[in-house]
Amino acid sequence: MLIRPFAAPDLARLIDLTIETFGPFYEEHFRPLVGEVIFANQHGDWRGDYRTQVAELHDPGQHKHVAVAVDGDVIAAYVAWSVDPARKNGAISHLAVSAGHRRHHLGTTLCEHAFAEMRALGAEVVEIGTGGDPFHAPARALYEKLGCTLLPIAVYYKTL
User: Which regions of the chain does DSSP assign to beta strands (E)?
Assistant: First the structure.
């Protein structure tokens, strides 16, 4: 497995991988949990949101970076992070691993890669978030294995 920086031709695959990875959360977990009104309000166009969001993840001039894990000629996973040099703070915003490459430590490898890159850019602290629901249990286990500290928070929705 090769870890390399993002290149412009990677964009379409990263968008597809993000939608593939997080689609089950939105459609099978979030939508049934909150109902149609809240779902439509919060994430009704989640695919379109990701198409826009993923296209803006890599901008080194703005301290935003993406690295991809390549298996042969296929992008198997990616991680996106940013650094705020003034605060010496880093944040991982996206981590996506294709279904066929899960449980092979790619998430660990990519997070460790991002942590090293952030340290090299002066970050002393990193923030990484995920959901508290069953869908995100593997992500929570990964972040705890990496030594991250869980900050318990609660988010509530109500239809008005």
Answer: 2-5, 64-71, 74-84, 89-97, 125-128
| pLDDT at residue number 151 | 92
With a cut of 70, which residues of the chain have pLDDT below it?
none
Strand partners, 65: 81
The pTM assigned to this predicted structure is 0.93
**Residue 9: C-alpha distances to residues 5, 15, 68, 72 (Å):** 12, 11, 12, 16
The answer to whether the CB of 22 falls within 8 A of the CB of 96 is yes
pLDDT of the residue at 144:
96
Q: Report residue 3 CA to chain centroid gap.
A: 16
Q: In the 8-state DSSP scheme, what is residue 149?
A: P
